[in-house]
Amino acid sequence: MILDNRLFFSATQRNKGCIGDVLSRIIKKNRSILEIGSGSGEHGVFFQKRFPEIIWQTTDPDLLHRKSITSWIEYEKLNKIMPQPLELDVENTPWKIPLKLTSSIQGIVSINMIHVAKWNCTISLFKGAGELLKKGQFLIIYGPFKIGNKHISQSNYLFDNALKIQNDCWGIRNIEEVSNEAKKAGFSQEDIIRMPANNFSIIYRKVVF
Question: Is the Cβ–Cβ distance between 110 and 44 less than 8 Å?
C-alpha cells in the first residue's frame, strides 16, 4: 500500500495551464527538463502528462515535498516514465545531477521559488544552471517581480509585505537585478511574458559555454 503524502498548493491549479503554454513554445521532444524547487509536485506531474515525449525531473530540498512528489507520481500512474524527485539544495553548487540527466537536459524551470528564498538562492540558481546548461539551452523563472524596483499591482505590494513578515530574507525581486545575475552566469534575457495574476515568465538563454 502506497501512503498518500500528496500536498495541494492552490496556486498550482491556477497557473499550471498558462505555464504549460509557455513551455510548449520552446521544449523539444525526447529531452529532459530539470525543475528546481518542485514543491508539492503538482506542476511536475501535470507537465509530464501534458508533454509525455519529454522526461520531467523534479527536485526539492524538503523531505515532505519529495514525499508529496512521489505520491503524486504514484497517484497519476507515471512511475514508468517519470523519475523520482532528487534531493537538491540550490545553494549547494555544483549540483549533484545523474549523468543520464546531464546528457539529456534541454532546460531548467523554477516556479515560484525565488521570492520565498533568500537572495543567495537566486544567485545560486543561475550559477548552478550556468554550470549545467550548454549554449542555447534555457532557464525559465516564473513568479511575481518588480519592474524598476516598483510593484506592478497593489496585490503584489501586499503580498511582498506579507512575505517579509514571514521571513525578512524573502520578498518579490526586482527583475533588473535578477537579470543582472543571469548575465553574470552567462545567460541573456530572451523574453518576458506577462502572465495572469500579476506574474511573469522570464526566459533566459545560455549564451556562453
Answer: no
pLDDT per position as a tens digit, 178-195:
999 999 999 999 999 999
Domains of the chain plus CATH, in order, are 10-206 (3.40.50.150)
Strand duo 105-111 + 55-57: pairing: unpaired
What would the DSSP string read from start to end of the chain? ---------HHHHHHHHHHHHHHHHH--TT-EEEESS-TTSHHHHHHHHH-TTSEEE-B-S-HHHHHHHHHHHHHTT-TTTSPPPB---TTSSSP---HHHHHHEEEEEEES-GGGS-HHHHHHHHHHHHHHPPTT-EEEEEE-EEBTTB-SSHHHHHHHHHHHHH-TT--PEEHHHHHHHHHHTTEEEEEEEEEGGGEEEEEEEE---
At residue 112, φ and ψ (nearest 5 deg) are 50, 45
Q: What is the pLDDT of residues 49-76, one digit of tens each?
A: 999 999 999 999 999 999 999 999 999 9
- Is pTM, for the whole model, over 0.90? yes
